[in-house]
Amino acid sequence: MQQDHKKFGLVGKNITYSFSKKYFTEKFSKELFDDCTYENFDIPTIEEFPNVLKENPDLKGLNVTIPYKEAIIPFLDTMSDKAFRIGAVNVIRFTKKGNLKGYNSDWYGFKKSLEPLLQPHHKKALILGTGGASKAVAFALDKLGIFYTFVSREATENAIDYNRVNVTTFDNFQIIINCTPLGTSPNTKEFPPIPYEFFTEKHIAFDLIYNPEETQFLKKAKKKGAVTKNGYEMLVFQAEKAWTIWNK
Asked: Which UniProt keywords are listed (predicted)?
């Protein structure tokens, strides 16, 4: 293999249909980065991660997806300030010294994607789900000055449960963000258990899922007049940010 070959990749589980591989392979081809390749590293548990590093000494950068955005942290040498505050990592840079540094570009992608939709009345957001992606979304909402509440299957110190979501909730929260995997292909009939009849044209329904293009969550919200958006553009923004991080 030539000396200057640069390998990038995605670490996750069940990621055959991942956005990243297709996106970066096309990017490298279009922008003539002939020395760059992108691979999926589909691992059954995070304990396999050191093997990925061992078997791929030419790695220059990685993306991390579910379910490892939080689990990967103990394997890193350092983290950026933002990734540390978010508590989730979706980009890893290999430093000149060979250290692994964790970053989060999800928050940036989400913020850039949501911003054009915002109107003055969009003051509060409901975040459905409490995983790594929802933490990045919360960080972005903080930056935008939007108050948020988490919704989870079980009520916790930081989240209400789905049973608490009612017409009053919809009156108070004008942005509903799906950070759960419910509705992702191939399980396209699934959707978060919220009362969709209370969506109005004053609401934004944002789904981090991009496959299918329109989830049940988005379809049901759109029927009631809500402004809807899927996660595709967010992924493009976070991918370009990852590319910038790798090439620092």
From this structure: Amino-acid biosynthesis, Aromatic amino acid biosynthesis, Oxidoreductase
Instruction: List residues bridging with 6 in a β-sheet.
Output: 36
CA distance 221 to 200: 8
In the residue annotation, 69 being an active-site residue is answered as yes
Q: For the whole model, what pTM was predicted?
A: 0.93
Residue 38: in which H helix or E strand, if any? strand 36-42
Query: Of the candidates 9, 31, 30, 32, which has an alpha carbon nearest to the alpha carbon of residue 20?
Result: 9
For 89, half-sphere exposure in the C-beta direction (CA atoms, 13 angstrom radius) is 27
Q: What is the spatial distance between Cα 98 and Cα 209, in angstroms, rounded to a whole number?
A: 33
Which of the residues in the chain have pLDDT under 50?
Answer: 1-3
40-71 as b/e: b if 16+ CB within 10 A: bbebeebeebeebbeeeeebbbbbbbbebbbb
CB 175 within 8 A of CB 125: yes
Which of the following is catalytic: 6, 30, 69, 112? 69
What DSSP string runs through 120-175? TT--EEEEE--SHHHHHHHHHHHHHT-EEEEEESS--SSEEEGGG--HHHHHH--E
Q: Name the nearest CA neighbour of 161 among 136, 206, 129.
A: 129
Tens-digit pLDDT profile for residues 7-56 = 999 999 998 878 999 999 999 999 999 999 999 999 999 999 999 999 99
